[in-house]
């Protein structure tokens, strides 16, 4: 990363200046922090470093410090000047050319790093109840989670993606009772869900169970005929299992369609059957972390930062949701993961302290758990926020995808920080204009691919209608790009072309820093922000620079830059699991 390189040589220069007693009262033992930034005014340089903070140690003016430190910076092909307390750096052509060459040589690995140092991460997200279709919020977690997984892998983490199936408890029985009603309807019975709102809350009256009921009758004709309005336990178990399997199958199909992969689907029911929940309770008991009160079993979570103790077993002897969650997270650690990252809805904010308390109570480091709390998604249609459920075809994630497509849905779901509310503009997401972020970026990649196609195909002069021979034969294009004389980018007597090329190259190099920051902050949205800026720089370069010219060598140099752009755009979109189209 160039920013880090400049920061490092500045640190070294400061040390040399101190050793030579050139920085007043400053000593080598004093701690200080430097940050290399991009100047708002491009005339100052490509990068700037503020050394004003050293004045407190050196007892010198910032301007004098900047001038002194600059004298100890020794590097070729970088022009250095100082303004007040700033040291400004302007890169020469060899640095810029190297950036292009690195991208062409490294291809899809350009920008990757080892920040994660191989840490084993289990990333849990979506984890919806298998009781119905995914809603739009689930779509945000799916897009964010899968993009984060790709990003962390790119940054050197060993990532394992897991979906926790909440398939225990009354909700699955309620699902079975709901399917029972749909099956009876399919068999011709005049029956419906309760009209009373309170009673109705114990059912899932959505139409999505109608196809499941048809399948059930088809696969179990005799059993279906034997059903009456009263259910026994065996019948309820069969209906519940079938409905759960159907819902989970539909969820998995949609996740695949939405470019979201999970390494494992972990069943809460299996967790209970394995005995791990009871073993976890026993371990807490042995550590003196449990006590009985009012007929219930309590966890001393307040000892570890929670605002109060929590019930793990209710008075009827059944476990609370928290009990299984504690066992599940303990199991993650037992499986050898160094870091547990969860994506939860913002309504789970109070749950974080409880989970951290349980991890610490069981003898592990609570900092192993990271929870990203996601805010809601607002659907905007024709400039107005829609209330969910008012328009039938906008309720589920599947319907949203059908409306705007997988790429647009994913990109828009990732485009904002997860801790901010997202306004999803339907009409804008569907539009083919520069105002639509995903279209703007995908069009930049398609434009680059179009340039490559035109470079090796016969064209027609718009004015004379004469045919123009291809600039390169198809067999020689790749070789011409890889061996281009990049110095030609800077010898053309066209200031706007050279300036836009330099700005574009510096933006390409910034990809390294973006990946580092996005991985460190668990923030895939930074890639979206970067892509918008990169696409803008590329479109500007295209405006000022004719890529296919009569000068074959100059064309090769500009094609090399375009190839670098298309490579970084595709790598970025791959991390977001969004397609990089070659034609639009």
Just name the CATH architecture of the domain at 437-576: Orthogonal Bundle
Number of helical elements: 22
Low-confidence stretches: 389-394
Name the CATH superfamily classification of the domain at 437-576: Isoleucyl-tRNA Synthetase, Domain 1
Query: Helix fraction?
Result: 40-55%
Distance between the termini: 33 Å
> How many distinct beta strands?
17
**CATH topology heading of the domain at 437-576:** Isoleucyl-tRNA Synthetase, Domain 1
Strand order of the biggest β-sheet: 7-6-5-11-12
Structural class, by secondary structure, is alpha/beta
User: Which word captures the global form?
Assistant: flat
Residues in β-strands, percent: 5-15%
Mean pLDDT: 93
Describe the sheet with the most strands: 5 strands, parallel
What does the radius of gyration come to? 30 Å
What top-tier CATH class of the domain at 437-576 fits best? Mainly Alpha
List the defining traits of the structure above:
four-stranded antiparallel sheet; single chain; Gyrase A, domain 2; alpha/beta; 584 residues; 50% helix; 13% strand; Isoleucyl-tRNA Synthetase, Domain 1; five-stranded parallel sheet
